Amino acid sequence: MWTCKNLWKKLAPLARSSSTLCRQNARGVLLNNERRLPLVPQAHMSSGTPGSRGDNNLYYLLVGATCVGGGFYAYRTIKGDKERYQERINEIASRPNKVVPEQPITEAPGEQAAETPQEIAPVTEDAPVETPEVTPIVEEVSPEVAAVEQEDPPTTPEAEIAPESVVEPAPEESVGTPDADPVVKSEPTPVAGSLPAETAEPQTTTETESAAEPATVAPAEVPAPTPVEFPSHAPYLLIGGGTASFAAARSIRARDPGARVLIITDEPDLPYMRPPLSKELWFSDDPSVVDTLRFKQWNGKERSIYFQPPSFYVSPQDLEKVENGGVAVLTGKKVVHMDVRGNKVTLSDDTEISYDKCLIATGGIPRNLQVIERAGEEVTKRTTLFRKVEDFKALDKVSRDTKSITIIGGGFLGSELACALGRRSADSDLEVIQMFPEKGNMGKVLPEYLSNWTTAKVKSEGVAVITEALVKAVSFKDGKVEIKLKDGRVVKTDHIVAAVGLEPSVELAKSAGLEVDSDFGGFRVNAELQARSNIWVAGDAACFYDIRLGRRRVEHHDHAVVSGRLAGENMTGANKPYWHQSMFWSDLGPDVGYEAIGIVDSSLPTVGVFAKATAKDTPKAATEKSGTGIRSESETEGTASSPVASSTPEPPPVLEQKDNYGKGVIFYLRDKVVVGIILWNVFNRMPVARKIIKDGEEHADLNEVAKLFNIHDD
Fold first, then answer.
1. What is the DSSP letter of 178?
2. What is the CA radius of gyration of the chain?
């Protein structure tokens, strides 16, 4: 309408002037009878043919077109408003309504008889009844309760009941007399589909599952259990239940205290830390560590692998109702489809959940060797791909029931598991074998001399190490798994642990239309960890742009913490780039450990500076001082002094190799600039290493730089 009005204002003066001019010409002709009426006005303002009254036709055409256009615009506007209003009403109507459980009532005998069997729980025939005039009290089960279990056994052993009902004497709930009838009562069980039980107690079967056959039970129809209700909308939706998701949830709640955060994970467990699965848990003396998942750190303090107990979280059903928001975890559910335009995801059971902002922290899937995948079912079921809690439990059982385990892989995970199982083999007849294609343990990360020393350390733990081993074929013969190498060697074992790397989980990329990096893998994001305007990616699955070292993808615990925290801040409007250099660490038992930062690749030139170690230069001593076994958590952003380069340029020093490397610093260089640092048995110096990489300067004498780490102090 506004456009039509402006058009009329422009054309109306033109039309009026044309009409006025025509009338003046006609009046002049009538007064001067000696002149004929001209066919063409002296100042013709019409685009039509002369004498065709085109000026008036144009006037009428413009007015009519303006009216038609305005009416059509008004029609479309009103129709669109109606459609949007109806969509909003349908969305509100589709949300689950809160069901108020009915209050228990006492009914007359005549009314009770008229009820259907589905509404009344069965009453046992031989239950004790002293006053037949008093009617039993019936408490109906709320529709929100998905399952029930028996809390107290019945007073009479012969009186067995259906799983939905429990017969127990309840004089305090009677109608007022001490001789009241027993109360027939349905005990609801809290919904357990979303939160696991306490981590310190293994799950056990209920009493009703182990009860004898109900010989005296009256027949009754059992109503179908009501499925657990999920929130239809989550302002903050986090896909994945690992370290990155939990760090993001804490960051979101810190900046937005009333935020409602929903974490969806396909694992049955609450968010937990993965490093202890290959480190401290194996060195625990507690025989129930597999069930409790609690362990003693190197400093002797005990803790759980779970970040928070179940009481910390909100039930998914209550997430939309809690006053101050909270964090809910939906366990055992996998997101299989993501609609980016519609801002919603679809779960494996076809449930749809909409979101305002979403984080993808799906982590990765352990790689497997193709020769193992093609070897058949017998080999596959004797192979462990180590990643989750259930993998730790399974491998712990295997290590106690078999005589031989072979670990394929010489990286961080393979070397840690080899040392852990080798230490356990000292108290049993377990044979532990480790094989890898490199010349030494962690050959892709450590310089050759340090890799060889590490290999000797692993062998001293009771592990048979096979280097330069390329697996050609795997088969199952005579009750043993047979591994054939390309050089003709054959290894027979009972079980295989494949620790050959991690494949980022990017299944959602196709349905979401997100870009996957062709070089590093993972979801390609910017420096703010954004894949779309309201979608972020963190953890192992994020291929991010490091403003200092370029595009990278990192698979370590500390990176999951840092990237998850940054993603959570940016989801609440921080818009911060990723500048923090995350670190990682690995321990070969309580006596040897190292921390690293930046790009550590054995193909790069390295310079190492070492010193004699003391009793305090061990992971155990470091955790005793810091008070935590997860060293990335105790890491501080302390002020580190800038290293001062020597005034006289000198070539990089050549390390004099020795048989024992107590403690030291290894610098990784690219174009004469330090891009990575490993602190070998040197702890609590990571802020210094981070500043050296951040400065990005050339250093003529790295011996002087190494002094900043105080490696020569006793």
1. T
2. 38
pTM (2 d.p.): 0.64
Distance CA 478, CA 483 (A): 13
Q: Which residues of 158-183 are buried (b: 16+ CB within 10 A; e: fewer)?
A: ebbbbbbbbbbeeeeebeeeeebbbb
Mean pLDDT, residues 565-578 taken together: 94
Q: Where are the beta strands (DSSP E) in 135-189?
A: 138-139, 166-168, 183-185
Measured CA distances, 649 to 63, 608, 652, 670, 685 (Å): 87, 18, 9, 18, 26
Q: 145 pLDDT band (50/70/90 cuts)?
A: very low
Token pair for 547 = 């403003």
Among candidate residues 248, 276, 273, 274, the one with its CA nearest the CA of residue 262: 248
Taking residues 656-671, report their average pLDDT.
77
Q: What is the per-residue pLDDT for 23? A: 57
CA distance linking residue 18 with residue 438, whole number of Å: 95
8 Å CB contact between 405 and 433: yes
What confidence tens digit (pLDDT) does each residue in 666-689 have?
999 999 999 999 998 888 889 999
CA pair distance 381, 372, nearest whole angstrom: 10
- Residue 434 tokens read as 């480790």
- Average pLDDT across the chain, whole number: 76
Residue type present at position 153: P
The CA distance from 624 to 626, in Å, is: 6
